[in-house]
């Protein structure tokens, strides 16, 4: 059983490192914590939840950064 967890953790680490070209973890850490806790309570799938939370958290952080950049640009034009 532990071998399955180790394989899942290694796969999650490989996926995360492949997704990030730089060390920009904005949103990933918070999303991984929330997803891990949610996954744990939803059938002991903490690793899967953490990976999903990281992906969603990173997406939301990127979306937020783009919105702020658009607002700054809009303020410069006015």
UniProtKB/TrEMBL annotation:
Q: Which UniProt keywords apply?
A: Signal
Specify the signal sequence span: 1-25
What name is this protein filed under? Glycine zipper 2TM domain-containing protein
Taxonomic lineage of the native organism: Bacteria, Pseudomonadati, Pseudomonadota, Betaproteobacteria, Burkholderiales
């Amino acid at each position: 059983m532990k071998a399955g967890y180790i394989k899942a953790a290694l796969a999650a680490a490989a996926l995360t490192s492949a997704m990030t070209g730089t060390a920009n973890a904005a949103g990933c850490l918070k999303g991984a914590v929330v997803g891990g806790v949610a996954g744990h309570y939803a059938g002991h799938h903490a690793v899967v939840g953490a990976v999903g939370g990281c992906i969603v958290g990173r997406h939301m952080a990127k979306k937020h950064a783009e919105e702020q950049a658009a607002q700054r640009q809009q303020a410069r034009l006015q």
